[in-house]
Design goal:
The chain has about 110 residues and is mainly alpha-helical. It has a single domain, classed as Orthogonal Bundle (Helix Hairpins). Helix 2 packs antiparallel against helix 3.
Amino acid sequence: MPTYNKLVRDRIPHIINDSGKTPITKILNQEEYITELRKKSEEELQEYLSAKTNEEALEELADLLEIIHALAKVHGSSIEDVENIRIEKAAKRGGFSDKVYLIEVCDE
């Protein structure tokens, strides 16, 4: 019997039940939940970095976005608030679309 010990999507236990198996789960407290969301974000980022195709990359980006939605909520906010902050930062500091790579800064 495989042991996972990780945060999973809400419907995963139902899917496991439907396959004829029995999942053993627990509900995390808030501190555990935040810790596991952070671990999950690292896991999903690694999966994105390992993606070999555009389709795989987009799947992993969608997983990362789901984690960002959940993290925004645990921090008392929403994805819309995060998006507004992103827009403000982009207006002040720019985005990454120009592909600028800073090598060094010289004192004059």
